Amino acid sequence: MSSKSAQTPFFYECSRILLNYYFDAFYTFTVQGNQQVPKDGSIIFASNHLSFYDPPIVGLSIERPLNYFARDSLFKGFLGIIIRGLNAIPVNRTASDIKSLKAIFTVLKNNGAIVVFPEGTRSSDGKLQEPKPGIGMIACKSNATVVPTRIFGTFEAFGRHKKIPTLGTPIHISFGPPVSANSIDPGAKHPERYLEFSRRIMKEIAKLELPEQVIV
Known about the structure:
- By secondary structure, the chain is α/β, with parallel strands linked by helices.
- The chain has helices at about 5-25, 55-60, 75-85, 100-110, 135-140, 155-160, 180-185, 195-205, and strands at about 30, 45, 70, 90, 115, 145-150, 170-175.
- It has eight helices and seven strands.
């Protein structure tokens, strides 16, 4: 591990503390199901995507360090320093990005945890969208455990059409039971193996409902 990587956990934990203060101060933030998340081993958190808030919301809910994806165009200047410190992996969305894929598989091979948004981009209406095949490919090739994750309220708080956040909105995150990649892998002979895997994961995400005591 390089000295640069060794410094990441301290920066990451400091960022978690600051973000925790922010969300505690300005939002009602609740978590359900995180006690069943494995504390070690390679994990893929598969979450719906509603807002820029989603990555920190997942990170605040899990004690272990997580790795994220971010557009490579964001890795510039001071913002780039912050993003790298938060374990983000740069991704080029306009081309086949072998370097990013290698970084992802290295994290999982070393029993790390990553956050993946199967839909690929933020929802435009707050509803679940059709997934992309990316998470299917990553999960099938790495055989990592997948944790279905669903976030509520971040669309209302800071959806893609908002220029500034709406404060005071209730935000909730639910984690489903961990799923082994093998248990939902349709197999190499399936004509749409990776996309079908992603669809099955989205079905698991859709099963996660907002608790009755939480109103968003």
